[in-house]
Amino acid sequence: MAILLYDVPSMLCTCGARKTYPNNVQDSMSNCLCEPAEAKVNCLCSDLNITSVFESEVENRLPIRRPWLNFYAAKDDPSTVAATVPSLVTAELLVHLKDSFDKTVIKVTESVCKVNNAILQGCYSCPQGAIANITCFTNGEPTIASIRCHDHIFTTPCHREGTSFTIIYGSEKARVHQECEVSCGTTITTFELTGVLQWTRTIHGTMKRIVNGESNVYDEIVLPDFLHIFDVMVTWYKTILIVAACLIIAIVISYVFFWMFGSRILMGGAKLLCRVIYGAIMLCLCSVSSPMKAVLRAWKERSLAKKRL
Fold it and tell me: Which residue ranges run through the membrane (predicted)?
């Protein structure tokens, strides 16, 4: 359960819940209009609807996720808030010993850890950051690998069969192409972390956080990645210009081709059409005249036969 903390008002009222649950009840700033009345004070106060504050505002409810820290309700006691660190970093320890030793045993593990390329998903210039799912492999015993991506450092468990791990990466740029180093010994391997992140901030959300006192103007002055926006617009314009150029070239070629060879094509087409029509007519006449010629030939033969008789 998340708790809103307000300034303690100058006038408090007796509350039964305060005695029963002294650790779970917090004072809320009361908006009261008070008037004196003999030995008492009559106050007309407007109640603070805490339920609506928790139900309507996402930032007032658990879990709260940040790239470096997460807040959750404890499983054994929901009224207790537990904080977890998503990814820890390695530390170098330097120990000075004043005593002398007769014998020392040094064991050095030279494991090689590798991580496959990963894709970032999420937003940039936002509190929650972007996430990437990685898998770490090692050729030796299970160990802990250190990952360095420029200014970001993570640690992840590694195993022969591979161990999945989620890293949270905070970026101020929309397009991320980062080469990261992985080491669990003296050997360093690399992998690429890439992705195109989204811009999720809005003017309405910024003004709302400032008015509610959840942030200040300085922290909210965050501009989008105009260079990425310009690159996208240039890419769109290039595509539009290429299509327009192809269309213009096609129109010009068609225009020139029509004026140079249009009349010849039309005359040739007309002649071809006339020949087709003439051939069709002749074919029809032939198909009609052939039976008539056969009938006339038969009639002439009969006439000659009668004259001979």
Answer: 240-261, 276-299
- Domain 84-92+109-199: assigned CATH number: 2.60.40.3770
Contact between 139 and 188 under an 8 Å Cβ cutoff? The reply is: no
Judged on CB neighbours under 10 Å (0-12, 13-18, 19+), 70 is middle
Burial 39-49 (b: 16+ CB within 10 A, else e): eeeeeeeeeee
- Ordered DSSP codes for 34-50: EEEETTEEEEEEEPP-H
Return the bridge partners of 167, or none: 132
Provide the residue ranges of all domains of the chain, joining segments of one domain with +.
1-61, 84-92+109-199
Q: CA 67 to CA 123: how far, in whole Å?
A: 12
- Give pLDDT tens digits for 257-287: 777 766 677 777 778 888 888 888 887 777 7
